[in-house]
Amino acid sequence: MAVQLPRTNKSGFYEIRMESVGGLGANVAGKILGEAGVLAMGLNGANFASYGAEKKGTPVKSFVRFCAPDQQVRTASPVEFPHLLAILHESLIRAGIAQEGITHDTTVVVNSTHPAEKIRQDLGMCGGALGVIDASGIAAAEKSRANMVMLGAMTRASGFLDQQAIRDAVSENLGHKYPKLLQGNLRALDRGFSELELQQFSCDLEHPDQPLRRAGPPIGYENGPMGGTIVNPGNTMEKDLSAARMGRIPLYDHDKCINCGKCEYTCPDFCYTFTDGTDHKGRRGRIFAGIDYRYCKGCLRCVEACPTEALTAGDDNEEYVAEHTTSQMKAGS
Questions:
Q1: How far apart are CA 264 and CA 285, in angstroms?
Q2: Do domains 14-201 and 242-332 have the same CATH topology?
Q3: What is the SS3 assignment for 264?
Q4: 287, exposed or middle or buried, with CB in 10 Å at 0-12, 13-18, 19+?
Q5: Minimal CA–CA distance to 9: which of 17, 1, 19, 21?
Q6: Which of 133, 169, 209, 290 has CA atoms 20 to 30 A from the CA of 192?
Q7: How far from the centroid of its chain's Cα atoms is residue 54's Cα?
Q8: pTM for the model
Q9: What is the pLDDT of residue 333?
């Protein structure tokens, strides 16, 4: 017998949207949700994803629709007003693209270490429910990925998804391909389910729903340059790779640094900056000035190369990055 959906839109669908970046596994999470709902819970439904370049750090949207088993699914349009919204990377909130379509009845689950009230203000939520969970931290502890933790949290937040059905779908999808990682993934899933705390908010505004904006291309047939000339070639001057990080960054201890430069040699994105100065032995030369975390994608090769443990792996903390990145130091000087 099919599970009863808690609520549906006018088309009869319960709709889920995941806002993520490449590398966090939103596409796989959507597939697992869809299979569990249709094959194990007797619902009808569909899942699909929307993304551009298949690379770490690029925006990804994953969509899931569920409906009664006797209803046909005749739409493949994006989920614009989700009943359940999962945000797998907090930087998408700052970019202003994750919160579109939130209504007074939306349940939102966010991967973050910040208090729920701050996240609520950043999202502009009036009513609905909000759950905040440190999915990246749990995933690192369990040697999994944030998508498994978020799957568990979404299962609990939905109010109707069956935890065992999701666990079975995870085992079916990942057990054969990555058998050694399965138990860690299941632990991450269970922790996401058990550690999520939802808060309900009431709304006293008459029209609290977030507007939906469909951004068009900046250049089209009406304003494109003659002959398709590329007048602004791509460059990396203002690139920001922070969305590509998987929750870990190198932390720097000045007292242990010997200015050997091995971090700079091994860094693939030129995050390390050096300047003229005096080292710890009083010798003039090039000394380490700091890390520009805008370019750091958290590969941690520098931590492996550091001979004195001046660089160690730590959690990707927004406040720490803002305080210690060399780009901020230069901006304030």
A1: 15
A2: no
A3: helix
A4: middle
A5: 17
A6: 209
A7: 15
A8: 0.76
A9: 37
- What's the one-letter identity of residue 255? D
Q: Which two tokens stand for residue 15?
A: 């709709």
Domain 14-201: CATH architecture, name and number where available: 3-Layer(aba) Sandwich (3.40)
**pLDDT higher than threshold 60 for residue 1:** no
**CA torsion, points 293, 294, 295, 301, in degrees to nearest 10?**
20
pLDDT digits (tens, 9 = 90+) for 262-317: 999 999 888 898 888 887 777 887 888 889 988 888 889 999 999 999 999 988 87
Three-state DSSP state, 184: helix
Q: Which CATH code of 3.30.70.3270, 3.40.50.460, 3.40.50.620, 1.10.3720.10 fits the domain covering 242-332?
A: 3.30.70.3270
| Identity at 14, one-letter amino acid code | Y
Tell me: the pLDDT tens digits for 154-190? 999 999 999 999 999 999 988 888 888 899 999 999 9
